[in-house]
Amino acid sequence: MQGDDRNDVKFGFTPQAETWNGRFAMIGFVAAVLTELITGQGVLHFLGLM
């Protein structure tokens, strides 16, 4: 099968960009949950925004 590699980094509204956006969103969500579990505070409290 020839064509675009799904892991290529491309800019704009492309399927590859949306794949990377989803991956980074998952990493951010896990980081927020881990921060809350480790510190016992929400992310906004941890950052001093609330």
Condensed summary:
With 50 residues, the protein is mainly alpha-helical. Helix content is 58%, strand content 0%.
What is the overall pLDDT average? 82
Order of helices and strands: HH
Rg from Cα: 16 Å
Major sheet description: none
Number of helices: 2
Low-confidence stretches: none
- What is the share of helical residues? 55-70%
Q: Which range does the strand content fall in? A: under 5%
Straight-line N-to-C gap:
52 Å
What is the number of beta strands? 0
What overall form do the CA principal axes indicate? elongated
Helix vs. strand class:
mainly alpha
What are the salient characteristics of this protein?
mainly alpha, 50 residues
Description:
The protein contains two helices and no strands. 58% of the residues lie in helices and 0% in strands. It is mainly α and 50 residues long. It has a domain at 15-46. The protein is elongated, with a radius of gyration of 16 Å.
